[in-house]
Write a structure and sequence with these properties.
The complex is a heterodimer of chains A (200) and B (257).
Chain A lengths: L1 E4 L38 E9 L9 E6 L34 E5 L5 E7 L10 E8 L6 E6 L4 H5 L2 H5 L10 E4 L2 E3 L2 E2 L9 E3 L1
Parallel strand pairs in A: 2-9, 2-10
Antiparallel strand pairs in A: 2-5, 3-4, 3-6, 6-7, 8-9
Chain B lengths: L4 H20 L28 E3 L39 E10 L9 E6 L24 E5 L5 E7 L4 E3 L5 E3 L2 E6 L8 E6 L10 H4 L4 H5 L4 E2 L10 E4 L2 E3 L5 E4 L3
Parallel strand pairs in B: 2-11, 2-12
Antiparallel strand pairs in B: 2-5, 3-4, 3-8, 6-7, 8-9, 10-11
Classes of the chains: A mainly beta (200), B alpha+beta (257).
Chain lengths: 200, 257
């Protein structure tokens, strides 16, 4: 039996956030970070897009982390996203069959990123979504957002967050580009600015 | 006209004064930097202008963000927490031991969770291709490490003291020596990337990144303490730095354990 307790007074002041800076590229990205889905899994989806600044310029040095549930809505408990090779000290990456639900992708020189993962299932009262955390040079505190997939309009219409954000909801819903292929741009500032979230 | 340290100093002072006025007027203490912090020029086009949308996690305990990705022994090698042993030779620099505890805001330890670090070498140079600072690279030092916290939330790294280095925010801009930390909690909401500094660094007042934390007490929490009990005889100097993660978490209690 599992019990969740989210009560309790906040007592200890937190460690402040800082920017990830420009030089994390040899430290945080790992082999296969974007290939989260087990090989050949029928529920695989690909989400891709750009991370853009307030001038509409793509960021070649943003880091995107994606975290989502399995297609049945359960939360993955498997480790092994960034398996290491004790022989070489390098990265082995995932083992190809287990689903950890989490991936990390650095945008490329064009500011583009993609993730291949499993189609998330619904949890609680929300429509299915992938949780996203964005880091970048210049971003002093990371930003959370969500990628909702566009296929189930009834579920999207009933989602508590999407109903609250009004005409900005489109920034949270990926566009369809093909079977299982979706487009999701992250606009840090300005016109079409992505809805970013804070958890309380 | 080139931006000088004096220009940045004035902006830093103005941001501090604005923060102190907000607090004096009854606004809450700010533990984190504002994303919109002009003295750090890279922030100007990279922060949202719209307010963040609050998610009440108490209203829906099923949110996937209340869970964290899992990491385990497979995600490490035995020497990943010793940055001085990753090459055939010894890196140049003062060896240090950095250790502390990973806690949540209730003071509970975060167990078996991933901490990743990266840093410049002792000359202040990152092993990154785009790093142009003409300090020497060290063939025996990459500057990347990772570990899992233990059952009490403790972590420990062996590395060398990183050097300060110049950057191009303004003329004669220098970053105080620091180690980058990337940390997971029991919930994805608690995700943290930050930087640990060393005590009494004379560069602190000039650095717009550190000063982006405008609250004095909060800024102090980014600075490690020298801890003689962590120093290893004939080997390394010890620094203690505890990390407290912000953000709500679901507390999982398995009955019968």
């Amino acid at each position: 039996m599992t019990k969740i307790d989210t009560s309790g007074p906040e007592q200890v002041p937190p460690t402040p956030s800082h920017t990830v800076g420009p030089f994390y590229g040899y430290a945080l990205p790992f082999r296969g970070g974007e290939d989260i889905a087990p090989l050949g899994h029928p529920d695989t989806v690909t989400v891709h897009g750009y991370v853009l600044d307030g001038a509409g310029e793509p960021l070649p040095d943003a880091l995107v982390e994606v975290w989502g549930p399995r297609p049945d809505g359960t939360v993955p408990k498997a480790d092994g996203s960034l398996r290491r090779d004790p022989a070489t000290g390098g990265h082995l990456g995932r083992n190809g069959v287990e689903f950890t639900g989490w991936g990390r992708i650095q945008t490329d020189a064009d500011g583009h990123w993609y993730a291949r993962t499993l189609r998330p299932g619904a949890r609680g009262g929300s429509a299915p979504y992938l949780s996203v955390c964005v880091f970048a040079r210049g971003l002093l505190v990371h930003l959370f957002t969500r990628i909702y997939l566009p296929d189930d309009e009834t579920a999207l219409a009933g989602d508590p967050l999407l109903t609250r954000v009004g005409d900005r909801r489109g920034t949270l819903i990926a566009g369809t580009e093909g079977t299982g292929l979706y487009r999701f741009d992250i606009r840090l500032q300005g016109e079409g600015e992505t809805v970013f979230l804070e958890y309380q | 006209m080139a931006l000088t340290q004096q220009d940045i100093d004035l902006e830093i002072a103005a941001e501090r004064a604005a923060y102190e006025k907000r607090v004096a007027d009854g606004a809450p203490v700010e533990h984190h930097p504002r994303r919109d912090y002009v003295p750090y020029r890279s922030s100007v086009l990279r922060h949202p202008r719209q307010p963040l949308v609050a998610i009440d996690t108490g209203a829906d305990p099923e949110l996937v963000e209340l869970h964290s990705p899992a990491f385990g022994e497979r995600d490490l090698t035995g020497i990943d927490n010793d940055l001085t042993r990753q090459h055939t030779g010894e890196p140049i620099g003062e060896r240090i031991t950095v250790s502390g505890r990973l806690l949540d805001r209730d003071g509970r330890p975060v167990r078996r969770q991933l901490i990743e670090i990266w840093q410049a070498n002792s000359a202040g140079r990152y092993a990154h291709q785009r790093e142009q600072h003409d300090a020497p690279l060290d063939p025996n030092f990459t500057g990347v490490g990772r570990t899992l916290t233990d059952a009490e939330g403790r972590y420990r790294f062996t590395t060398v003291q990183p050097g300060p280095y110049p950057w191009r925010n303004h003329v004669n801009a220098w970053r105080p020596a620091h180690i980058h930390f990337s940390v997971f909690g029991t919930a994805f909401t608690q995700r943290l990337v930050t930087q640990m500094y060393f005590p009494n660094d004379p560069l602190f007042p000039y650095d717009p990144i550190l000063q982006s934390v405008t609250d004095d007490a909060a800024r102090q929490r980014l600075v490690a303490s020298y801890d003689h009990s962590l120093s290893v005889p004939e080997f390394s100097l010890g620094y203690r730095w505890d990390i407290v993660l912000d953000g709500p978490a679901a507390t999982w209690t398995e009955e019968g354990r």
